[in-house]
């Protein structure tokens, strides 16, 4: 399912002394099955943008089309749009409210008017998708760990079986292991369910790992857009707007300054290891040739 955004502007408190334009003239197309990361420093408009993707916020001007339908036109059923485009807020565990994990995950499917048999099937599939054991289903969601709460909240969105999954800072507040688990689950969900995934993140290593395309925002506008390797090659421009590059990209730059023949396009630990080992193997071959 694709999303097409054209000339999108949103102003909070329009016509008042508190008026503030959070995003302006946004043009962006998100293709079916794509994984897109939206990055930018605090206040750049990322969260405002993603809240337009399922009609949670309405444009001051411009359009948002989901599968060709302008979701803000009169007569459009926004409930249906929100079943198709699932939005998981930053700290989604704050969305939990039912007495049990099961009821929390079942809330959306029940509101869709599905049979109890179909609700049960969807809840079981959603919990399995985020690695929550059914043994936890009758517990209060508020008794769970932070990572478990996060996964239950995501399961509640997945139970509506959206075609697009939008996540605002999905790993915020999690410890390193929790972040890694969450990234693996998002990647697996995208592959297994063929979802279109849009996520907001401050973590450059995360976006380098997950995203096929980066959208960089500053002061409510898109200032860069492209594949991670292309965007992170513009390290100086990113730093100028308060962002950085993945740690491994920065490491390669330092090694290059010291004379190492390593590529500029390294983003991940695996790529860094491969690049460093390639240099060491070359040096070993040169050393062996010299001894001969």
Strand order of the main beta sheet, please? 6-7-8-3-9-10
Relative strand content? 15-25%
State the major sheet. Answer: 6 strands, mixed
- Quickly name the level 1 CATH class of the domain at 1-76 and 163-242: Alpha Beta
Give the overall average pLDDT.
91
Number of strands: 10
Which stretches are low in confidence, meaning pLDDT under 50 for 5 or more residues running? none
In percent, how helical is the residue content?
A: 40-55%
CATH architecture of the domain at 1-76 and 163-242: 3-Layer(aba) Sandwich
* Terminus-to-terminus distance: 61 Å
Task: Please state the overall shape, judged from the principal axes of the Cα atoms.
Answer: globular
SSE order: EEEHEEHEHHHEHEHEEHHHH
CATH fold name of the domain at 1-76 and 163-242: Rossmann fold
Structural class: alpha/beta
Characterise this structure.
- This protein is α/β, with parallel strands linked by helices and 292 residues long.
- Among the domains are: 1-76 and 163-242, P-loop containing nucleotide triphosphate hydrolases (Rossmann fold, 3-Layer(aba) Sandwich), CATH 3.40.50.300; 246-292, no CATH class.
- It contains eleven helices and ten strands.
- The strands form two sheets. The chain has a six-stranded mixed sheet. It has a four-stranded antiparallel sheet with strand order 2-1-4-5.
- The longest helix has 23 residues, at 269-291.
- The protein is globular, with a radius of gyration of 22 Å.
